[in-house]
Amino acid sequence: MEMLLMGVCLSVFGLAVACLAFGAATRDSGEATAAAPAVETEAIQVAARPTRFFVSPPAPPVAARTNIPIEALLLQIENHVRLEQAAAESFLASPNASLLHSRTMSTLVN
Amino acid sequence: MPDIDLLKGLAPDEAERVLALGRRVVLTTRAELFHLGDVADSIYVVTRGRLRLTLPMQVRSREEDVLVEERSSGQTVGWSALIPPYRFTLTASAPFETEVVALPREALNSYFAAHPETGYAISLNVACVVGQRLQLFQAMWLREVQRMVELRCA
C-alpha cells in the first residue's frame, strides 16, 4: 500500500513538472515566433546588401565621431572649405552641371 | 610690387599714385587686421604674405573662427569700406607676418573726384572682386544644398 502511494505521489509530481516544462516551452516559442520576423527581415536586408569587394565599409559621419579633438575638427572644416573653394573655382572656370556637383574628398562629409 | 587686382588697367605711374594714398601696415603672426562688425573706413591690398578671412561658427557649443577665404599677395580685402553701411562682414587676420597697404575711403573718393577715369577703372576692378566672390559662394552654397538634399533623400 505504502509503495503504491509513493508511486502515485511520484507520478503526480512528475506530471506537475512536465506541465510546468510544457507551459514554459510553449510561452518561449510564442515570443520567439513574434521576434522571428524582425530578425529574419534584418538578416534578409544584410544578405541583400550589395557586396563591395576591396572597398572598406563607409565611415560614420563626423557628427557621429564625437571623440575627435576640436582642433582636428577645425582642421577638417578648414580643409573642407579649401576643397569646396577649389571645386567652385573649377566650376566658374568652366561652368557645367557635372563640375558644379563634383564629388568632394573632404573628410568632413565622407 | 605684385600684380594688384584693384589696380588692373591703370598705367604703372597712375597705380603708384593710387598706392601712395595709402599707408603700409605690417601685421605680425596672428595679428588681426579688422574684426567682424568693425567700422570699415579703409580697403586693403595685400602686398606680402596672406590674410585669413573668418566667420564665427558654433563648434561643440564653442564659438570658433572658421576659415571662409584666404587672400594673398596682389589681392584686395575689405571692400566693405566702399559699400554702405561700411561695416566689415568678416574678420581678417594674418597667419604669419603679412604686409598690406591700407587705402582710406576718404582719400580714394577725393582722388576719384579729381581723376574720374581712375575712379572708373578701380570701380570696375572692385566690381570684379565682388562679383567673383558672389559667384564663388553661390557655387559653394549650392554644393552644400545638394548635399543636404542627398542626405534628406537617402
Shape of chain B: globular
Number of helices of chain A: 3
The number of domains of chain B is 1
Question: What about the largest sheet of chain A?
Answer: none
Map the helices and strands:
The complex is a heterodimer of chains A (110) and B (154).
Chain A: H1 2-48, H2 70-93, H3 97-100
Chain B: H1 12-19, E1 23-27, E2 32-34, E3 42-48, E4 50-59, E5 62-72, E6 76-77, E7 91-93, E8 98-104, H2 105-114, H3 116-153
Antiparallel strand pairs in B: 1-8, 2-7, 3-6, 3-8, 4-5, 4-7
Could you please describe the fold and organization of this structure?
The complex is a heterodimer of chains A (110) and B (154). Chain A has 110 residues and is mostly helical. Chain A has helices at 2-48, 70-93, 97-100. Chain A has a domain at 62-100. The longest helix of chain A has 47 residues, at 2-48. With 154 residues, chain B is of the alpha+beta class. Chain B has three helices and eight strands. Chain B has helices at 12-19, 105-114, 116-153, and strands at residues 23-27, 32-34, 42-48, 50-59, 62-72, 76-77, 91-93, 98-104. In chain B, the strands form two sheets. Chain B has a four-stranded antiparallel beta sheet with strand order 1-8-3-6. Chain B has a four-stranded antiparallel beta sheet with strand order 2-7-4-5, with no helix packed on it. Chain B starts with 11 loop residues before the first helix and ends with a helix. At the A-B interface, helix 2 of A face strand 5 and helix 3 of B.
